[in-house]
Amino acid sequence: MTAQIRFRFERGGGFTARLRPDLAPETVKAVLAMLPIEVTVYHSRWSGREINFPVKSSTSVPRERQTCTVNTGDVIYWKEWDLCDEAQEALAIYYGAEVSRDHRGYLPVNVFARVPQQEWPEIEKVGLRIWKEGVERLTVSGISEETA
């Protein structure tokens, strides 16, 4: 069983996040079904210290224990909840405590994984690099409990 996901960045660095099916079981299932993925990761200034990337799930992901208050290490799933067929979707990783929002205001998200505290300096390093140097490629893959 996959217990964690790994993030590896093209300009170096990476970290893992422990999945939280206790918080968002359907979101965890949907994200695992997408893996592995290679995407371009962006920095978001609307929500502060956040890096994010677009995804496309093969199932409809429900709202699960949504929050607009996120913390360092939170990995979240977001979509345009009010749009059905062509909804935009994204995953994001926070390297600071923030309020999730966009140009319209507060943005409810599903927190489905968490990066352990000892890896927070690496999230910040990567986040600041993407903010200052621009987008880069990212590989996201699952890690089974046996290899974790």
3D structure, described in words:
- By secondary structure, this protein is an alpha+beta fold.
- The chain has a single domain, classed as Cyclophilin (Beta Barrel).
- The chain is built from two helices and twelve strands.
- The chain has helices at residues 25-34, 120-133, and strands spanning 2-9, 14-19, 37-44, 50-54, 69-70, 74-79, 89-94, 98-99, 101-102, 105-106, 110-114, 136-144.
- A hairpin with a 2-residue loop joins strand 9 and strand 10 (105-106).
- The mean pLDDT is 91.
The major β-sheet equals: 8 strands, antiparallel, barrel
Radius of gyration from CA coordinates = 14 Å
Give the CA-CA distance, first to last residue: 11 Å
Query: How many beta-strand runs?
Result: 12
- In quaternary terms, these chains amount to single chain
CATH architecture assignment name: Beta Barrel
Index terms:
148 residues; Cyclophilin; eight-stranded antiparallel barrel; globular
Task: Report a brief summary of the structure.
This protein has 148 residues and is of the alpha+beta class.
Topology:
Blueprint: E1 2-9, E2 14-19, H1 25-34, E3 37-44, E4 50-54, E5 69-70, E6 74-79, E7 89-94, E8 98-99, E9 101-102, E10 105-106, E11 110-114, H2 120-133, E12 136-144
Antiparallel strand pairs: 1-2, 1-12, 2-11, 3-4, 3-12, 4-7, 5-8, 6-7, 6-11, 9-10
